[in-house]
Structure prediction request, 424 residues.
Amino acid sequence: MGRGDGRDRQVTVGPVDDTGATKLHVDMDAFYASVELLDHPELRGRPAIVGHASGRSVVSSATYEARLAGVRSAMPVAQALRLCPDAVVLEPHFDKYAHYSAQVVGILSDVTPLVEQVSIDEAFLDVAGAVRLLGSPSSMGAGIRRRVFAETGLTCSVGVAATKFMAKLASTKAKPDGMLVIPATETLAFLHPLPIGALWGVGPSTQETLHRYGLRTVADVASTPLDVLRRWVGDASGVRLHELANGVDPRGVEPESREKSIGHEQTFEHDVTDASMLRRELLRLSGQVAARLRAHGLTARTVALKLRYADFRTISRSRTLTEPTNVGRRVYEEAASLLDAVLQPSDAIRLLGVRAEQLVPGGANAPVLWDPDEDWRDAENAIDRVAARFGAGAVTSAALVGTEPRRVGDTANAKVLREREEPR
Prediction:
């Protein structure tokens, strides 16, 4: 909806009728960059980029000063520095981000138990049940902002509205360090002038389709008959867009959030053509994925492989297992089999990734008479215990000792089931 640099910022000033606006969306401002600046206060007010100082690294986060120069997340760092030569590049520290994320969620949980964390830096709250005790939704939003800053030194933006979708739009509009309240009675007045790209689910392809039919604003979508929309963009998308465009979003705040998938991927400093080196990297990534599965008490029914070639062509392959697993060796064997099926001797690989999908609780699968992974399972559980005491990497596979490809930062990612419902 906005440019993401704060130039079209809109905030609520003074009293406002927030009756019925009981959904809050709390979004940390430039989260990774803001956390890094806690250790580098001398850089406040200057453009800064979080990423690795490498030609192939991408921007994880950027301060608003850098964003004003056109820097965006997921942009190559080299391109970001061309746009903003004065920017300082800061190495990421994901352990710090997890620490502050947990601290913020703790603050939100003091307001209401109905907190739905949708990513490391944002969450929805339903405060309807807290109004009698803590006051109006807008006063709770203001209190959250004050407390987050007082206890962490970080700022957040808050959207207050009658639905999750509108609360998300409001927090985006309020960035950085602001709060916007959209009264329930003014939902359509706020929503309808916006471009159709503001609607969740309208990506470039859908936007192009709707533009082709003359639809430019949310109001245009709202006034289009449902059967026409379904014919243009499909049944499910047509219904969803018609509802959102008319201010309808029945989704509630769901505190319990299960991970949809867990993955690790690696971008190499130089393209890799050595198949044995790729397999070693695959073993490392598979072990990390399995360790995270065990830490969350989950197993995976599907193992997926991701390859990005030197020409940026990207493919994914997956395989569903007979029995769910959280054993790294099993994940590796399945991923290696997928790799062998597609890898050609002349291939140059830029990025390699492993993902565990179709996750289920660790004890959900029925017991089997014979467990082919029993020995590996015992060994990996022992490694988990060592890692818990002495730190990750204290024990590793012998196959991983020795020459390794130069890497541009390992990227861990976990998708939350309901994350796909939220506009990003």
Summary: The chain has three domains: 1-182, 192-245, 259-421.
